[in-house]
Amino acid sequence: MSEAELHFLTGRMNGAKLAAAGRGELRFPLPVGLVYDEEGATIIDPDAEVAAAVADVFSAFRSAGSAYGVVAAFKGRRFPLRAYGGTWAGELRWGRLTHARVLNILANPAYAGVYVYGRYHSSRIVSPEGRISTKVTELPRAEWPIVIFDHHPGYISWDDYLANATRLAANTTNAGARPPREGAALCQGIITCGSCGRPMSTRYHANGHPAYECSASRADQMATKTCRSIAASSVDDAVAEALLDALNPDEVALALAAADEVAKRRASRSRASELAVERARYEAERAERAFLACEPENRLVARSLEARWEARLELLTEAEKTFATEMAAAPVLPGRAELEALTGDVAALWHARSTTPKDRKRLLRTLVADVTLLPEPDFAKARIGIVWHSGATDEIVVARPLRVTEYRRTDPAAVEFARRHANLSNTDLAELLNAAGYLTGAGRVFDNDAVASLRRYRGVPQPQLLQDGEVTVADIARELGITNGAVIHWISRGWLFARRGLNDQWCIPFGPGVEAACRERAARSAHIHALDSTEPQAAHELTVGEVAALLGISTNVVYYWIERHHVEARRGSSGRLFIAFGPNVEAACRERVALSVHLEAAAHPQTPRHTRNEAV
Ligand SMILES: [Zn+2]
User: What is the 3-state secondary structure (H, E, C) of 468-531?
Assistant: First the structure.
């Protein structure tokens, strides 16, 4: 078959293919979640688990709003994958849903019931080295050659598809503010996470400081315990130091000695060629002299002498050519002094302002093959592995500046210790921790507050507060529909027995007899039992704060008056106290203020007032 015939056939095949595609009949491997039925129509995968997994990708993206969110939602759940391998019926396998797969699914119009042909354009490119490779590019939506809407049942609508694409594009813009490769991060592109083996990416913080991040593992929820993000300067400074160290005078002296050796070898080789030329020239001259000395009438001898001279001349040309080639092939070696000056200045050169980050990277990469952030459980350290192009390796451990949340973290051993003795009071536990030699994250000894914050933030449980038959103030308040403050008031008056438990909290033995007495008291004291009125503040009513402001006294005084029934108040909506503050009441209050020289002393009622809502 001729070349032309082949070309024609391919053209006809492509034409037929295009026609079939135009009708939406050209089949190609479907993405997972869609299959061909017996008639060749595209349908949603009848395997319910597969269909549900695909549908959940779209709903997860709807709620999470990012592909990373979808990956997180699928953590621990398997996801169907279909092997693309030229065969229609791709084998169904199960695996992990990766970030890249989520992006592919969201971008595939097939899930919106749309038939698209020509979403990808492939072209052959010939590299300058003569290698041929196929480059596949995704065409923008507007350039898709064949688009058939409502071609088959989909998981989402076309509008959903477009909305997803818009949302994804917006997400990418956030991350897309990556500076070009000229960025200051020295190890960008050559640093790998030694914990999970993935390349680390470079991210620039808002303040311009770059950091290396093991983001690929995080995106795919594959991050190991020691995968981390690290300030680029922590790594760069160490690597730069190693680099400059490698170029220090001692190392350079060794390199120069080697260079001298090379120069010497080269000189001896070219000297040999030079000698060969000299010898050839001498031979040629001798042949010439012999020819010239020959008598012209002795023609036969003369001819043979001439031939010999010519042969010698040829040998000379050859030797000269060899010498010239050798001299040309050897690149000019920089002089020793020149080299010394250059390497002596490397540090200065490295730090010079005129040296761009790109120059530094280039210099680094001429010597360093790659950099690895080795696994290091200690957050205060970073272990950096350097592989030199020479094959040598270096390992550097540097102290790493910690974030506040990292270095202010209490030693896990102390937390564990506290957890084992959680049932002590804060003060006792603090004493025990101090006795055991532990310090807080800030390096101080433990006290009540420090233990309280361990309980609050580090999951150290609260101690068992109550003994059998005991309840808390809040329990009683809830049970009787009164405020905590009312209960505390009863305790302070001695009407209700309570003991101070751990951390000074009230523990109240609450048997049936006590409960009945409490209920009776609550029913009797109308001013305590004010929670039933939920009327909002009326026009003639003022809050405690308003009364205090009006009279120029502390709110504590007003609470005290209410408690002593000098002023009547009701508890209204949202639990606030409202005082019917008519002219008579105001006059009485002002008189009381004027009369009370000990107002300040009396202004601190015994009933502790924790919050506004608890006051009686
Ligand atoms: Zn990692």
Answer: CCEECHHHHHHHHCCCHHHHHHHHHHCCCCCEECHHHCEEEECCHHHHHHHHHHHHHCCCCCCC
| Residue-level length of the chain | 616
Give me ligand 1 centre to Cα 195, in Å: 5
Rounded to an integer, what distance in angstroms lies between the CA atom of residue 130 and that of residue 558? 93
Question: Looking at the structure, do residues 418 and 380 belong to the same domain, yes or no?
Answer: no
Per DSSP, 111 falls in state G
* Domain end call among 424, 442, 457: 457
Tokens of 72: 């997180």
Residues 385/374, Cβ–Cβ less than 8 Å: yes
Number of domains in the chain: 5
Half-sphere exposure of 559 (CA within 13 A, CB side): 22
Give me ligand 1 centre to Cα 357, in Å: 26
CA distances in angstroms from 217 to 192, 337, 341, listed in the order given:
11, 50, 45
Q: What distance in Å separates the CA atoms of residue 381 and residue 229, rounded to the nearest whole number?
A: 13
Helical ranges in 151-231 per DSSP H: 158-175, 215-219
Please tell me the predicted confidence (pLDDT) of residue 338.
Answer: 65
pLDDT digits (tens, 9 = 90+) for 41-86: 899 988 888 899 999 999 989 888 888 888 888 888 889 887 655 4
Q: Are residues 165 and 213 in the same domain?
A: no
pLDDT tens digits along 88-143? 456 777 888 888 889 889 999 999 999 998 887 777 666 666 666 666 777 888 88
402 domain-assigned: yes
Coil, helix or strand at residue 24: coil
Residue 581: both structure tokens together: 């503050």
Q: For residues 78 and 72, give the distance between their C-alpha atoms in angstroms, rounded to a whole number.
A: 12
pTM, two decimals, is 0.34
Domain carrying residue 239? 182-246+345-407
Q: How many Å lie between the centroid of ligand 1 and the Cα of residue 214?
A: 5
Task: State which residues have CB under 5 angstroms from ligand 1, the bound ion.
Answer: 193, 195-196, 214, 217, 227
pLDDT in tens, 588-600: 888 888 777 555 4
Number of H-type helices and E-type strands within the chain: 23, 21
Both tokens of 433, joined, read 């921790």
Find the 414 Cα to ligand 1 centroid distance in Å. 28
Q: How far is the CA of 178 from the centre of ligand 1 (A)?
A: 20
- When mean pLDDT is compared across 318-322, 326-330, 417-421, 475-479, the lowest value belongs to 326-330
Q: What are the Cα distances from residue 158, in Å, to 51, 150, 165, 583?
A: 18, 9, 11, 71
